[in-house]
Amino acid sequence: MSDRFLLQGPRNARVTILLAHGAGAPMDSASMTAAADALAGVGFRVARFEFAYMAARRTAEGRKPPPRAEKLNPEYQAAIAALDAGGPLIIGGKSMGGRVASMVADGLYDSGKIAGLICLGYPFHPPGQPEKLRTGHLAGLKTPTLICQGTRDEFGTKDEVPGYDLSDRIEILWLEDGDHDLKPRKKISGFSAADHLATMAKMAKAWAERLPV
After folding, report:
1. Which residue among 45, 135, 160, 164 has the highest number of C-beta atoms inside a 10 angstrom radius?
2. Average pLDDT in the 66-83 region?
3. 148-157: pLDDT as tens digits
4. What CATH number is given to the structural domain containing 122?
5. Taken in order 44, 38, 167, 134, is the CA torsion positive or negative?
6. Strand spans (E) along 13-168
7. Which parts of the chain span the membrane according to its record (predicted)?
8. Residue 172, domain member (yes or no)
9. CA-based nearest residue to 21, from 94, 123, 79
10. What is the pLDDT of residues 99-128, one digit of tens each?
């Protein structure tokens, strides 16, 4: 495996999860690290990687904006090839990273290269712009998919998402009062961020065990 990845979890894990970051924060952000820790803690091998524009921010001056999500599809496919998981692979990511994974998933699933897709806070629409849906390709998605979404995520709330035309291969785990990082307001929800991440990881494990791999 390449040194371009952050790796954790058991080396002999049955299933590997490859995660890409969101548009504005790197692969080692607090939210990405916490999610990866939770998934590794239930027995997944977890790999994180960065798109080139984000990696460049570590060395170059200024903040290069992310390209359109579609432009990142080849980079995600290249990361899968470089990882060479050697066993069942689930792809996904946080926000934009999960969206990019969802756009390349079906071709990879059809060819037997991946077993499923997991999205942590899917960006169904830009905040404050519910009319600008990013769901067209999700209606016919064939890849088994788990979306973990906070009920108050400004990119798609529990009130909005049930009205979208989504494939029946998509399962959604709703996390009470969670925001785009799945983080709840403890005084309102009674849950902590750690509680929700533990629930996410437990659900991901149960879901993965049902996949035909």
Report:
1. 45
2. 96
3. 999 999 999 9
4. 3.40.50.1820
5. negative
6. 16-20, 45-49, 89-94, 116-120, 145-150
7. none
8. yes
9. 94
10. 999 999 999 999 999 999 999 999 999 999
